[in-house]
């Protein structure tokens, strides 16, 4: 009797697994159907710090990363790092920016100090686009979508695949485009 029950249990389990892998059981709506893809799972970057930080500044949590959202986030980071509240971040305060977000871990102070005065003004920091846009905003609309993160739609004026991306300088964590942070 135990042998018969064990055999029936195995058959039932195998049938259920087969129905799920084939997209569901016929005549049973919802059985084995998969939920819609999670936009945050699509955007999960693995070990890329630029993509890793993007969900932190997606203010409305829609999975589309915009320049306005980036500027709001950069403002918060700048304000946190500007310890003496003088509107500038010096070399010592810049360490706070590096610790604030994975995408700034290897950031270079000079990349942001446009006028080379030894300090970064709020505008110098906030107006600098995230490397995410340089790498993924192929149509230049200041919005990075899930499709752009997956590399879809590159043929529309983007210049091609990864080997065709522009180089903006050496080193840093900008990935294949060489943004120095």
TrEMBL record:
Keywords in alphabetical order: Signal
Residue stretches making up the EF-hand domain: 69-104
Location of the region described as Disordered in the Swiss-Prot/TrEMBL record: 19-53, 149-181
SUPFAM superfamilies (alphabetical): EF-hand (SSF47473)
Domain of life: Bacteria
Entry annotated with the keyword Glycosyltransferase: no
N-terminal signal peptide: 1-19
Family matches, as PROSITE patterns: EF_HAND_1, EF_HAND_2
Compositionally biased region (Gly residues): 156-181
Coiled coil: none
Name the record gives this protein: EF-hand domain-containing protein
Provenance organism: Rhodoplanes tepidamans
